[in-house]
Each structure stands twice: as structure tokens, then as C-alpha cells.
Specification:
Blueprint lengths: L11 E7 L13 H20 L3 E11 L8 E11 L3 E11 L7 E12 L14
Antiparallel strand pairs: 1-3, 2-5, 3-4, 4-5
GO cellular component, one term: cytosol
GO molecular function, one term: long-chain fatty acyl-CoA hydrolase activity
GO biological process, one term: acyl-CoA metabolic process
């Protein structure tokens, strides 16, 4: 995945939250780990619908932090299916923010998450056909 300069999000809105003071690093910007966890939730939401059940994140293929996230920003995660294998799903997640009192969104992070469908015992299973 290559960092892009698109002017609109790719994919469907999967999660929207507000970045809070408690989520900051020592520089006062939103902690990258918090942002990555929001992206993982967005990918898992899409994967669960497609797998029609439990999923687990097995890897993050690439993660690019393009710009800091500010406290109070509206953080929107957009998810897009890139590839579905027998049991795995590659989901691209873009994060766009809108700062306080601003109308113009900006892309701040993008990455590809790999999730697998799992059964109730936690074993890998096939993604249902036709998905």
C-alpha cells in the first residue's frame, strides 16, 4: 500500500469517535497505539459481517501515519475489502479527521489489516462462500 493524497475517503464508514485528552502521548498528540486500535475495530467490524461470525486479527501488513491527530478531532475510520481468501480477509483502513470547528477532513493514517474467520473454539475456519 502506498500513501496516497486522495481528497475523499475510500471505503465505507466503519467507526467514528472523538479523540480525547486521555489518549495523548507526551507531545500532546493522540497516541499511535490508540489510533491503531480504532483501525483494528473498524477492520474487525467489516470482517465480522463478511465472515458471519468471529474473526481475529493476525497481522497488519502496513501502517502509515501521515499526520498527527489532534485532541478533540472527529476521527473517522473507513474500511474497504482488498482481498478475501479461503479464511483470511485483507481490509484497508483509512483514517480521516476533522479538527474542532473545521469542515475540511484530512487523511491522517492508512493501513491494511489481515483478519481470519474463526470458530467458537478459536480455530481458523472458511469465510462463507459468496462473500
Amino acid at each position: 500500500m502506498k500513501a496516497s493524497s486522495s481528497s475523499a475517503p475510500n471505503g465505507e464508514l466503519a467507526l467514528r469517535v472523538i479523540a480525547l485528552d486521555k489518549d495523548t502521548n507526551s507531545n500532546g498528540d493522540i497516541y499511535a497505539g490508540w489510533l491503531m486500535s480504532q483501525m483494528d475495530l473498524a477492520a474487525a467490524s467489516m470482517a465480522g459481517r463478511i465472515a458471519k461470525g468471529r474473526t481475529a486479527t493476525v497481522s497488519v501488513k502496513q501502517l502509515d501515519f501521515l499526520s498527527p491527530v489532534r485532541v478533540g478531532a472527529e476521527v473517522s475510520c473507513y474500511a474497504r475489502m482488498v482481498n478475501i481468501g479461503t479464511s483470511s480477509m485483507h481490509i484497508e483502513v483509512e483514517v480521516w479527521t476533522r479538527d474542532n470547528h473545521q469542515n475540511t477532513p484530512r487523511k491522517v493514517t492508512e493501513g491494511v489489516f489481515v483478519l481470519v474467520a474463526i470458530d467458537d473454539s478459536g480455530r481458523i475456519r472458511a469465510v462463507p462462500a459468496g462473500e
